[in-house]
Amino acid sequence: MEVKESKELSELIETIKASMKYFYKTGCALQEIRDDRLYRDISDTFEIFCRDHLGIGRAYAYRKIAAARVIKNLSPNGDILSNEACIRPLTKLEPDEQRLAWQCARDTANASGREITSADVKNAVCLIKGGNVTGNKARKNSYDKLERIDAVSQEFKKAYKIFVEAIKKAKNSGWETTSKEVVISRLEVLKKIVRSNE
Fold first, then answer.
1. What band does 19 get if pLDDT is binned at 50, 70 and 90?
2. With left for phi above 0 and alpha for psi between -120 and 50, is residue 45 left, alpha or beta?
3. Which of 46, 74, 102 is the last residue of a domain?
4. Could you tell me if 122 and 109 lie in one domain?
């Protein structure tokens, strides 16, 4: 290992140890160590490095990396103030879906005058994936109440669901039936229509 890489690895290890509770910094440092294979002179694998030098397991490290990638997607500066539990459900989505789900969760929380919770994000992810919102009865009742506050018509919900299904179908076909660029341009048109009265 070069002196520069050794110094870089030492700095990253210190960053991780000092900021374990700050998942964004930790995830970015772990990703750099893994991607650049900075561990290779002191450990055979990234997993062994994490265990022996950081005292963390493989799953923990990969969760931090995935959450940091989501934060980079939502805000390139990494300035979103949230905890990993709120971000984790977004790791199951594509980058564009992550942004949409985060906006949906933020709107839900704002409608109630509170901070975003992991339940808000989980519900938004379920909506994006076309599934039903799950959880205990209280959370379901809360979601129904928020839906009424947001004043979403049945017609809009139906059209939105059809639109999302069409996008998923195009994506699953490898964008053969409808190109990704066309979908993005149609979304931009929709944004302009919505914002035209602002």
1. low
2. beta
3. 74
4. yes
Token output for 6? 């050794």
Whether residue 23 contacts residue 83, with contact meaning beta carbons closer than 8 Å, is answered with yes
Whose tokens are 């989505």? That residue is: 93
Residue where one domain finishes, among candidates 40, 74, 108: 74
CB 65 within 8 A of CB 98: no
CA separation for the pair 97, 75 (Å, rounded)? 14
Question: Which pTM does this prediction carry?
Answer: 0.58
79 lies in some domain: no
Query: In the block, which residue shows the tokens 């053969």?
Result: 176
DSSP string, 19-61: TTT-HHHHHHHHHHHHHTTTTTTT-SSHHHHIIIII---HHHH
The answer to whether the beta carbons of residues 28 and 68 sit under 8 Å apart is yes
- For the record, the structure tokens of 41 come out as 């002179």
Domain count, the chain: 3
Tell me what percent of the residues of the chain surpass a pLDDT of 90.
23
Which residue range(s) make up the domain with 29? 3-74
